[in-house]
Fold Lipoprotein-releasing system ATP-binding protein LolD.
Amino acid sequence: MNEAPVLALRGVEKSYRSGDHDVLPVLREAELTLHAGEIVALVAPSGTGKSTLLHLAGLLDTPDDGDIVICGQSTRGMAEAGRTALRRDQIGFVYQFHHLLGEFSARENVMLPQMIAGRPKAQAKAEAERLLGMFGLSHRMEHLPGKLSGGEQQRVAIARALANAPALLLADEPTGNLDARTADAVFTELLDAVRQKGLAALVATHNEELLPRMDRVVTLRDGILVPR
Ligand SMILES: Nc1ncnc2c1ncn2[C@@H]1O[C@H](COP(=O)(O)OP(=O)(O)OP(=O)(O)O)[C@@H](O)[C@H]1O
C-alpha cells in the first residue's frame, strides 16, 4: 500500500528577473517528497530560496518548469480556480508574523477561512473554539489580536492555519518573532497538533534547536534540495 505523498516537488525550477536582462536562478530541479505524518525542516542561509520554495509549494506562485503535486494532484498547467481550491482545502500557512486581521477577534480570525470555504457559521464557531482551546486560548477568544501577547497571536495564527483541516502545513519561521522560551513552547504545541492530526509539514527555520524535533532536515545548495 503506497499512499500518494501529500507534497511532491518534481524538477521545480524558478528564476527571478531583475532588470531587463539579469536572471537570478533560485531553484534548479528541486525535488522533495513529503508523506502524511512527516515533519521536514528546511534550513538554508538567508536569500537561498526558502520562501520561494514555500510559496511554490503553497501554490502562491508558479514554477518556471517542473510540477508541484498536492495530495496526488498535479498542478502543472492547472487553472487558477483549481489552484485556489487546492490551496484552501489542503494547505495551511503559518508565517513569522501572525498576519491576523486586527479588527476581528481571535475566534473570528479562526472562523473566517472556514466560512470562506463554505462551512456554516455555527460549525465554524465550534471548530474555532475547539482549536483555540487546544492552544490554551479559551479565555482569549473575544480578544482582538492587538490585545494578545506575541505567543498568543502566533497560537491563534496556527489555529487558523489548521481550521480547514489541511493535509499540508507550510511554516516560514513560525516562531522567529518570539523570545526563545515562548518560541519553544509555541513550537512544541505546533508539532503536537501536526503529529496528532497526521499532517505533513514543511518548516523553514534558522533555529537549530528545533531541528532534532523534526523528522528530517533538508537544505538548499545551489538551488537544489539536499538532505542535511
Ligand atoms: N519577487 C522577486 N523578484 C526578484 N527577486 C526575488 C523575488 N523574490 C525573491 N527574490 C530573490 O530570490 C532569492 C531567494 O529569496 P527568498 O526570499 O526565497 O530567500 P530566503 O531563503 O527565504 O531568504 P530569508 O531567509 O532571508 O527569508 C533572493 O536573492 C531574493 O532577493
